């Protein structure tokens, strides 16, 4: 009997270990199930807190689950599946009226009343820009400026031209389809852009996000597929690729060493990084009435200016960067769930995916990439790598960059991709906002 008891105990421990080895996001499966049951029971009994506690539970549970599913579906995982599910599923649940009312109240309070999305944007913008190596920022942008400029002009021209063929107004195509594609993603691009458009036009932010999101998603899919094709071209034509090196002079490797990846985690500095992120958002709000430019856009500009001027101490920049990494790793899918539930209309989303709309998105991204590919010849760059980095200009932020570079097996190009996405995207958001304000 004793032997049987020991064997039974060992079997239970083995099963528990096996279950604990499975994870939903960063959480072990048993813990995830326990938290989910507690949250569902609280909602069913109308005891779910209608504040950030309840909201965080709903957002993070849904975000981790949908992100995990999207990251595991073959093929789909390589085209931004996690982000797509996090946006589309909550939108569909609301559209078909199957979302629990108590969960919806907590989610709404967290996203709209507490403005969690603004805190998320602040941490992303401040940390992503301040956390970049000054050397990478200056030298990388110098190298990428011409391909980005030529590619952006070609992408805008192609997108607007194809839009006109399908009966779209040029201004609509530019502001609501092309700009979201090259705006640097959802967190760093579409969110501040939608806030700016809302202030200028006096339209609800939710309506604007529903118009902007589909273009960014489609653009990211096209960029990922195109990067895979560029990898294939490099294999067939070895003289066109540097196998992960952008510039033919061969000094990219030294430049790419400078980053915060290997810096030890400092909890205290993360606190200062959070405060700095808040300060940038407040600074934007303070300057907005004086300049007439929306606060989120001024936040981006001020972060870039202070970074280039080296005004903020390196330790504080590291804190902002580590806070950005924490927020992006743990809250990105949660924020996408909130956006999908509250800001992305399922009806408008489905209506957006017409043949003409898809053609505009594809033409914009392909023109961007092809321009980056061919202009490399005149800039002492490898065409394949130049095309891939330029493709990141149409990615879904950092997540899109990872997907694009993974599809092409060029993860070493990440610093250049970040220049393309962050700085290139920020410049496009600022430019679009100023143009919208001028022409409105």
UniProtKB/TrEMBL annotation:
<feature type="transmembrane region" description="Helical">
    <location>
        <begin position="352"/>
        <end position="379"/>
    </location>
</feature>
<feature type="transmembrane region" description="Helical">
    <location>
        <begin position="267"/>
        <end position="287"/>
    </location>
</feature>
<keyword id="KW-1133">Transmembrane helix</keyword>
<dbReference type="GO" id="GO:0015293">
    <property type="term" value="F:symporter activity"/>
</dbReference>
<feature type="transmembrane region" description="Helical">
    <location>
        <begin position="52"/>
        <end position="73"/>
    </location>
</feature>
<comment type="similarity">
    <text>Belongs to the 2-hydroxycarboxylate transporter (2-HCT) (TC 2.A.24) family.</text>
</comment>
<dbReference type="GO" id="GO:0005886">
    <property type="term" value="C:plasma membrane"/>
</dbReference>
<dbReference type="GO" id="GO:0008514">
    <property type="term" value="F:organic anion transmembrane transporter activity"/>
</dbReference>
<feature type="transmembrane region" description="Helical">
    <location>
        <begin position="209"/>
        <end position="230"/>
    </location>
</feature>
<keyword id="KW-0813">Transport</keyword>
<feature type="transmembrane region" description="Helical">
    <location>
        <begin position="293"/>
        <end position="312"/>
    </location>
</feature>
<feature type="transmembrane region" description="Helical">
    <location>
        <begin position="118"/>
        <end position="138"/>
    </location>
</feature>
<dbReference type="InterPro" id="IPR004679">
    <property type="entry name" value="2-OHcarboxylate_transport"/>
</dbReference>
<feature type="transmembrane region" description="Helical">
    <location>
        <begin position="174"/>
        <end position="197"/>
    </location>
</feature>
<feature type="transmembrane region" description="Helical">
    <location>
        <begin position="144"/>
        <end position="167"/>
    </location>
</feature>
<dbReference type="Pfam" id="PF03390">
    <property type="entry name" value="2HCT"/>
</dbReference>
<feature type="transmembrane region" description="Helical">
    <location>
        <begin position="79"/>
        <end position="98"/>
    </location>
</feature>
<keyword id="KW-0812">Transmembrane</keyword>
<feature type="transmembrane region" description="Helical">
    <location>
        <begin position="324"/>
        <end position="346"/>
    </location>
</feature>
<protein>
    <submittedName>
        <fullName>Malate permease</fullName>
    </submittedName>
</protein>
<keyword id="KW-0472">Membrane</keyword>
<keyword id="KW-0769">Symport</keyword>
<feature type="transmembrane region" description="Helical">
    <location>
        <begin position="419"/>
        <end position="439"/>
    </location>
</feature>
<feature type="transmembrane region" description="Helical">
    <location>
        <begin position="27"/>
        <end position="45"/>
    </location>
</feature>
């Amino acid at each position: 009997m004793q032997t049987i008891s020991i064997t039974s105990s060992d079997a239970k421990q083995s099963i528990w270990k096996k279950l604990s080895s499975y994870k939903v996001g960063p959480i072990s499966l048993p813990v995830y199930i326990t938290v989910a049951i507690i949250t569902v029971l609280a909602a069913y009994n109308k005891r779910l807190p209608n504040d950030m506690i309840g909201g965080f539970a709903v957002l993070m549970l849904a975000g981790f689950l949908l992100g995990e599913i999207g990251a595991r579906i073959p093929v789909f995982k390589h085209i931004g599946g996690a982000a797509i599910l996090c946006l589309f599923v909550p939108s569909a649940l609301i559209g078909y009226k199957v979302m629990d009312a108590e969960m919806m109240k907590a989610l709404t309070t967290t996203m709209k009343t507490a403005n969690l999305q603004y805190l998320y944007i602040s941490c992303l913008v401040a940390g992503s820009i301040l956390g970049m190596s000054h050397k990478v920022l200056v030298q990388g942008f110098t190298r990428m400026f011409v391909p980005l400029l030529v590619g952006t002009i070609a992408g805008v021209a192609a997108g607007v031209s194809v839009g006109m063929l399908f009966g779209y107004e040029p201004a609509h195509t530019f502001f609501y389809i092309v700009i979201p594609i090259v705006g640097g993603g959802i967190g760093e691009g579409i969110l501040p852009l939608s806030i700016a458009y809302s202030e200028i036009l006096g339209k609800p932010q939710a309506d604007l996000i529903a118009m902007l999101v589909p273009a960014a998603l489609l653009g990211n899919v096209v960029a990922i597929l195109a990067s895979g094709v560029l990898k294939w071209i490099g294999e067939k034509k070895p003289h066109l690729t540097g196998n992960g090196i952008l510039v033919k002079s061969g000094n990219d490797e030294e430049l790419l060493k400078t980053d915060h990846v290997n810096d030890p985690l400092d909890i205290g500095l993360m606190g200062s990084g959070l405060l700095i992120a808040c300060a940038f958002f407040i600074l934007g709000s303070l300057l907005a009435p004086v300049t007439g430019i929306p606060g989120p856009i001024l936040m981006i500009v001020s972060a870039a200016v202070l970074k280039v001027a080296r005004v903020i101490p390196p330790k504080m920049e590291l804190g902002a960067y580590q806070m950005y990494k924490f927020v992006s790793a743990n809250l990105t899918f949660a924020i996408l769930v909130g956006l999908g539930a509250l800001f992305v209309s399922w009806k408008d989303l489905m209506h957006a995916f017409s043949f003409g709309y898809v053609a505009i998105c594809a033409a914009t991204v392909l023109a961007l990439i092809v321009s980056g590919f061919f202009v490399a010849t005149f800039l002492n760059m490898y065409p394949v790598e130049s095309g891939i980095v330029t493709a990141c200009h149409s990615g879904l932020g950092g997540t899109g960059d990872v997907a694009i570079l993974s599809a092409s097996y060029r993860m070493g190009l990440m610093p250049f991709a970040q220049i393309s996405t962050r700085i290139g995207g920020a410049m496009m958001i600022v430019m679009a906002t100023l143009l919208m304000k001028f022409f409105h």
